[in-house]
Write a structure and sequence with these properties.
about 325 residues, alpha+beta
Length: about 325
Amino acid sequence: MKNIKIRPYIPEKLEIEEITPNHIRLHAYPFEPGYAITIAHPVRRLLLSSTVGYAPIAIKIDGVKHEFDSVRGVTEDVAPFIVNIKNLKFKVKDEFQGQDKLELEYEFSGPMELIGEHLNSDKVAIIDGDSHLANINNDAKIKFSLVIQKGLGYVPSEAIREEIGGEYIPLDAFFTPVRKAVYSIENVLHESNPNFEKIIFEVETNGQVDPMDAFKEAVGIMHSQMSVFGAELSDIPTSNGRLNDDSPELKVLLSSVEILNLEHRPSNCLQKSNIKYIGELVLMNESDLKNIKNLGKRSFDEIATKLREVGYEIGADLPHELANTLNKRLAKLKGQN
């Protein structure tokens, strides 16, 4: 009866090849014929449009009122100086990753060539440190403040103007840290069938984020977007009158906590407590979660926020049948590990 299927084959093989620290190639297979494009295209779109990055959104320069001004003793006018600043790639250091916005203060005196690495600080590192910013002449100085913001995609300066103070000059913000996200699909032999498919993804970032983290984030976003259907579809009876183990809601609840893209501290706390699945968090009440060793308020709040993004609250009141099925599946999964 091998020619008659009752459900699609679920791919099991994932191979990751690191080309450079910011460039990876992933091989995922075997997919049913036609399934590879269905999965690959939305993941690519999400990589390019929904990966979070940091960018300068505003600058304030002492003695400068607008972007067509100049600074005494600085060779470049303000406009080209701003362009050079906009092109920099800022990597926010781990201890400040939880902040959506950072304000940085700088002051430099000449004679010197101001380059990207001079803007390194305790909060940020400049990826393209050799980039030229300005030439400062003898007996001249420049003092400026930058606002670095976390965001998605591209936001023009006109939209940013109303978000900042009047003394700041708004900048076009290019947040996307993914430089390249492409895929190809090849046929692969599986169980004597040569028509199964393999997806080969290539992901390259500008160094702000790890390419594997960016890929996981894209997959996590796809999970969370699909979860909107879970509540409605889970109410539809299956052919045997029981909850379907492949229901979208159950799939989300049985997903790894890694798709939440938690920061290192909460992720480490969950790992040490052997909490591996989203469903485990949903079934816990607030006091149980707060009592996890070394899990502070900030980490608790982050977990709660990430769970809401995939459609759940800590200690959610799940339907009885779903809760029972979830507990059984979790016990089976934990028993296998």
